[in-house]
């Protein structure tokens, strides 16, 4: 926060993000600095059934859960969210169709959001 202007959290639950945003805001106020911009990276993992439990990461679950995560991120101040549809296996990039489909599913349900060029 003292040296940068943006914050790019990775692999988080929404409760953890809410807590972190509150801490970041309090620290910024204490230091009389602007609150850093929020640009989270969400690991997009669409599922047919809801993913439940306290360990559910943002972006995991049904399209409804993912849309709720995006809306909450926006409500916490994120004007940009990076959706990462890959699970970490470099070989996935050779077969990107499933990743593209996941991204297309989210995009079809969020026509009101703007895309960055």
Kindly describe this structure:
- The protein is an alpha/beta fold.
- The chain has one domain (6-108).
- The chain contains 3 helices and 6 strands.
- The strands form 3 sheets. The chain has a two-stranded parallel sheet with strand order 1-2.
- The two termini are 27 Å apart.
- 15% of the residues are buried.
Radius of gyration: 15 Å
Tally of structural domains: 1
Provide a count of the helices.
Answer: 3
Shape: elongated
Overall SS class? alpha/beta
Write the SSE topology.
Elements: E1 6-7, H1 14-30, E2 37-38, E3 41-43, E4 45-46, E5 60-61, H2 63-75, E6 82-84, H3 97-108
Parallel strand pairs: 1-2, 3-6, 4-5
Task: Give the tags.
3 helices, two-stranded parallel sheet, 117 residues, alpha/beta, 6 strands
Short note summarizing the structure:
This protein is α/β, with parallel strands linked by helices. 36% of the residues lie in helices and 12% in strands.
């Amino acid at each position: 926060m003292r040296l940068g202007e943006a914050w790019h959290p990775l692999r988080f639950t929404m409760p953890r993000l809410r807590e972190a945003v509150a801490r970041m805001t309090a620290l910024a106020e204490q230091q009389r600095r602007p609150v850093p911009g929020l640009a989270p990276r969400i690991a997009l993992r669409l599922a047919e059934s809801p993913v439940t439990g306290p360990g559910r990461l943002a972006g995991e679950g049904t399209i409804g859960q993912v849309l709720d995560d995006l809306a909450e991120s926006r409500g916490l101040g994120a004007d940009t969210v990076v959706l990462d549809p890959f699970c970490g296996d470099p070989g996935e990039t050779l077969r990107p169709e499933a990743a593209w489909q996941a991204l297309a599913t989210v995009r079809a349900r969020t026509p009101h959001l703007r895309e960055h060029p």
